Amino acid sequence: MHMKKGLLIVLSGPSGAGKGTIYNAVLDRLPQLKKSISVTTRSPRNGETDGVQYYFRTVAEYKRMKENGEFLETAEVYKNFYGTPKAPVFEMLERGEDVFFEIDTEGARQIKEKYPECVSVFIMPPSFEILENRLRSRGTENEESLVTRIGSAKSELAKYRQFDYIVFNDDIVKATDEVVNIILSERCKISRNVGKIEKMLNTEKTEK
């Protein structure tokens, strides 16, 4: 029996655009979406289990995986390494399951490079002023750190052209609806359903 391949959906955007909130809201609406589990070299925190929140590996093990080309994307964050292993993601896709990522623009670029058929969605704030206000209202960083983050956000905004879709997050419910609609529309594309259609046509010919 032919099984339709799953979708790999990437949600990205600058810090402060609201992609994390939208990601969780979409998962609430489409609970059948699968989340990928990353590999990290940081130590497990209280309550974290290997293979549940993360795959915990040593730096040597991580570097060996990277050299072997086992990652869809990889990054260094605060002196720890993080990466998405290809194998479990591709296994889910082959089973016809849709895999949903929330990731920064560099990670999104790496995934698109290694898996061009992925569906990438860029979350855009209504304006840069609103984005800056959102970052400042968090109150979690000093001015120097905030200036750096705002500069990074501006740099990430300029990368919108590498994505398939753009969603303006001026209203969280509307933005969530738009991402859900993108996923549902992609599932209905002819190119993603050819195998199922051909099987139906061949079955009909056989019965005749």
Q: How would you describe this protein?
A:
By secondary structure, the chain is an alpha/beta fold. It contains eight helices and nine strands. The chain has helices at residues 19-29, 59-67, 86-94, 105-114, 128-137, 143-157, 172-187, 194-207; strands at 8-12, 34-35, 38-40, 54-56, 71-77, 80-85, 99-102, 119-124, 165-168. The chain has a five-stranded parallel beta sheet, sandwiched between helices. Strand 5 and strand 6 (80-85) form a beta hairpin. Helix 1 (19-29) crosses helix 7 (172-187) and helix 5 runs antiparallel to helix 6. The longest helix is centred in the last third of the chain and has 16 residues, at 172-187. The radius of gyration is 19 Å and the shape is globular. The two termini are 20 Å apart.
Structure described in brief:
The chain has 208 residues and is of the alpha/beta class. The chain has helices spanning 19-29, 59-67, 86-94, 105-114, 128-137, 143-157, 172-187, 194-207; strands at 8-12, 34-35, 38-40, 54-56, 71-77, 80-85, 99-102, 119-124, 165-168.
